[in-house]
Amino acid sequence: MKTLSLLCFSLLCCILTNAQKPVKITGTIISGNPTEIEFQYMNDNPISYLSDDYKGVFVNQNCTLQIPVKRLMNGQMQMGNYTQPVSFLPGDNIGIDIDGDSILFKGKGANKNNFLQAVEKSEFNSDYIYKALCSDDLNLDTFAYQVNRFIDGRTQLLYNYQKTYQLEEAFNNYYLADIKYARYGAIESAKRFYCHKYKIDSDSVKWPQIYTEKYDLSLLNDHDTKYSIYNDYIASVVHEISEIIRTQNNKISKDDAKFIAINDSLSGKTRSYAMAAQIQSKLSESNYDQKFIDAFYNLNNDEIASYEVATAIKKYKTKQSLLGQPLHSEMANAIVVDSAGVKSTFGEMMTQFKGKVVYLDIWSPYCGPCRMAMPHSKKLKSKLANKAIEFVYITVDGNNDKLWDTLYEVSQTKDNHYLFENGFKSSLHNFMEIFWVPCYMIFDKDGKLANYSAPRPTEVKDGEESDLERELRSILNK
Question: What angle do CA 434, 77, 87 make, to 5 degrees?
Fold first, then answer.
């Protein structure tokens, strides 16, 4: 089955490419002086985290660009300091009039984007939940009330807007699905924020009822697989069920528990997409699990799921081919900047460590898991101080006056710090499909890639070796 799928990969590419119907964007400056307009994180794929950016440059007060769209696409528009969500459907032909601080969408597909603009100007904008989470006194009951108020408020905004303007059914369905599944994500985020804020363990908290509600299988709906937020919800459901399975039998591995959860608790397209997402995730971590892949190809998969799995397998093989080889140009040419402001390519930076094994930590000081790993990283670095092993840290954050001091403080070292000039948009990130931090890699003494999904630093008892330490020592001794 796997061979057949890969043989069909090119055909699937043709089918999906031919289904594209570009969105035409025409920007006109009535007043003001913007120089460009950018559409960021644009994604029309409900399974993949891959997104694209599109930029238009104003010439004589006008700019025109086309964006290939296969199905409902969402992302954000940025122009100077102005940012708002945008949504496109195949065949949209949208004009954007810029009059100082006023933005007006016109033409086919305009109404949904004027509506999204109105939502962002309302009380129930994209920052509403985040602000509630970050309040000085995070009260669980109050937050639950705020979540329900947010859902009701955003729903009412849609109904009020529809009294005057017509919106496409595909957009309406997406917007309502986004609200429905956002509730679950907000509650889960609150639990993590609360425990982190007050430095307490989840098991010690007497959670209000809304926070103890388990996954709701009644929400499963194959029709919603077209929305990424639904597939994110399903991933959370799979995680919860797998944790229950492991509680009942601690001999079952995490991967096996997820496999059981997907096969026994899900069905139809939901199961197909959940399996595809798991395969993508595992392959991105250099984990080729034949059991998942065989099970996937025994399902009745649509072209989206089949295409994503075939693409993930192809990308996995590409990454595997990089191991033990000189740096690929897409990695080597990524621009990094050191603490003195000196720019170089990633390849040039790596030459200074020739003869040493390099443990690369791609991170952000504002990332919880990144911060939590740093004390363990420091301890391992000290333990290996007399070995030809270098720990190198490259942040995805943009430069500012406080950045370097923050990096030094959080990492507990001033050694080997850099930033990616283009952050997550660097050529290395794009080529290696790095969507989040932390991400760890190991390079051998010749600067060749040894592991693109290396173990993270973890706590170990004195006298014991972590998986990471064993791997670093093994590569050093080759």
Answer: 90
Tell me the per-residue pLDDT of 364-417, one tens digit each, with 9 for 90 and over: 999 989 999 999 999 999 999 999 999 999 999 999 889 999 999 999 999 999
CB 343 within 8 A of CB 335: yes
| Interatomic CA distance for residues 245 and 251, integer angstroms | 10
Report the chain's C-alpha Rg in angstroms.
Answer: 24
Integer distance in angstroms from the first to the last C-alpha of the chain?
Answer: 38
Q: Are 388 and 476 in contact (CB under 8 A)?
A: yes
User: Apex CA 437: angle with CA 384 and CA 417, to 5°?
Assistant: 50
CA 370, 376, 379, 383 dihedral sign is negative
Question: What tens digit of pLDDT does each residue of 438-450 get?
Answer: 999 999 999 999 9
Q: What are the backbone dihedrals phi and psi of residue 171, each rounded to the nearest 5 degrees, phi first?
A: -70, -45
Up-side HSE of residue 116: CA atoms within 13 Å toward CB? 22
Residue 391 near residue 361, CB atoms below 8 Å:
yes
Helix, strand and coil percent figures for the chain, each rounded to 5: 50, 20, 30
Q: Cβ atoms within 10 A of the Cβ of 130, count? A: 12
pLDDT value of position 19? 56
Instruction: Give how far Cα 371 sits from Cα of 168, 209, 286, 364, 456, Å.
Output: 44, 31, 24, 8, 12
Name the phi and psi angles at 372, rounded to 5.
-65, -30
Rounded Cα gap, residues 435 and 471, in angstroms:
24
Full strand arrangement of the beta sheet holding 417-420 = 343-345, 335-338, 417-420, 389-395, 357-363, 439-443, 449-451
453: closest CA among 464, 470, 438, 431?
A: 438
**CA-wise closest residue to 440 among 354, 342, 331, 363:** 363
What are the start-end ranges of the E strands in 5-118? Answer: 23-31, 36-43, 52-57, 62-67, 73-79, 82-88, 93-99, 102-108
323 touches 447 (CB < 8 A): no
